[in-house]
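Shift notes (night). Ran Nucleoside triphosphate/diphosphate phosphatase while the centrifuge was going.
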Amino acid sequence: MRMPKEGEFVSIQSYKHDGNLHRTWRDTMVLKTSEQSLIGLNDHTLVTESDGRRWVTREPAIVYFHKKYWFNVVAMIREKGVSYYCNLASPFVLDEEALKYIDYDLDIKVFPDGEKRLLDVDEYELHSKLMQYPNNIDYILKENVKILVDWINNGKGPFSKGYVDIWYNRYKQLSHK
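Came back to this:
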């Protein structure tokens, strides 16, 4: 499948390890693509949960996906500053239907003041047993937590100074806001 162009929209589908659909985002505007990554933006985007519940995102959020790293990053632009929600997840794939990845439960939240919290450890342990995550997946995820924390601590990738401003301004240009 061809990579979408700047200004086009893609759907995002999150799955669980057992293959069940977890959550979908209907229209994410593509801001940049490369052979390895995709940067997009959700702004009042319709989200559908696996149980059919629907909700709309409250604030603009820049999303970062990579084909090498086992995480994706959501930078939520809020009045009190940018908060980051980082999902430990498989690298993304893109097909005719959507950008897709497997969500592996663990999350890191970074608050505007820089505080970091590892979330959903209990959910990870439960799903690891229920869905029988292989040992190599557990190892890969733990190594990618280390990479992600290094990125956060050292302002790399989506955590770099100016990243949010650059991509939010690009979104405003593309959407004529």
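The two ends are 30 Å apart (CA to CA). The CA atoms of residues 70 and 141 lie 7 Å apart.
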